[in-house]
Amino acid sequence: HGLTPFQAFVTGLASRVGVGNIAGVAIAIAIGGPGAVFWMWVTAVLGMSSAFIESTLAQLFKVRDSNSKQFRGGPAYYITQGLRSKTFGVIFALALIFTYGFVFNSVQINAIANASSHAW
């Protein structure tokens, strides 16, 4: 079975809001002062723009699976189809596997470890 629209929405929302958005704001203001808020707004506008473009490309280049009749897509698909470069699509997919498998987890673990060490 596939995801319901609500499950897809909540999963997308969870990937956008996380420990990095909470701890990152606190660290930026602590190190950079109140002026850091302006630059966070600037980067937020750029981030929203790139998220919109990524979502649009994912809708344009999605593929219907012939067996399950569900859609498949994402960055690896639109890189492979839009840029017509299967090699770059595979490299991007492998980079995402590494990043989500190791790098993002270490950010979460570091935030939990710091919070625990300061609490006890």
From TrEMBL:
Keywords attached to this Swiss-Prot or TrEMBL record, sorted alphabetically, are: Cell membrane, Membrane, Transmembrane, Transmembrane helix, Transport
Where's it found, cell-wise?
A: Cell membrane
What membrane topology is annotated for this entry?
Answer: Multi-pass membrane protein
Q: State the organism of origin.
A: Acinetobacter baumannii
Q: Where are the transmembrane segments?
A: 12-32, 88-107
What Gene3D superfamilies does this protein map onto? Amino acid/polyamine transporter I (1.20.1740.10)
* Entry's Gene Ontology molecular function annotations: amino acid:sodium symporter activity
* Primary localisation category: membrane
The taxonomy runs:
Bacteria, Pseudomonadati, Pseudomonadota, Gammaproteobacteria, Moraxellales
Q: Which family does it belong to?
A: Belongs to the alanine or glycine:cation symporter (AGCS) (TC 2.A.25) family.
**Entry's Gene Ontology cellular component terms:** plasma membrane
First and last residue of the signal peptide: none
Q: Which PROSITE patterns match?
A: NA_ALANINE_SYMP (PS00873)
Q: Which InterPro entries would you find in this protein's record?
A: Na/Ala_symport (IPR001463)
Q: What is this protein called?
A: Sodium:alanine symporter family protein
Pfam families linked to this entry: Na_Ala_symp
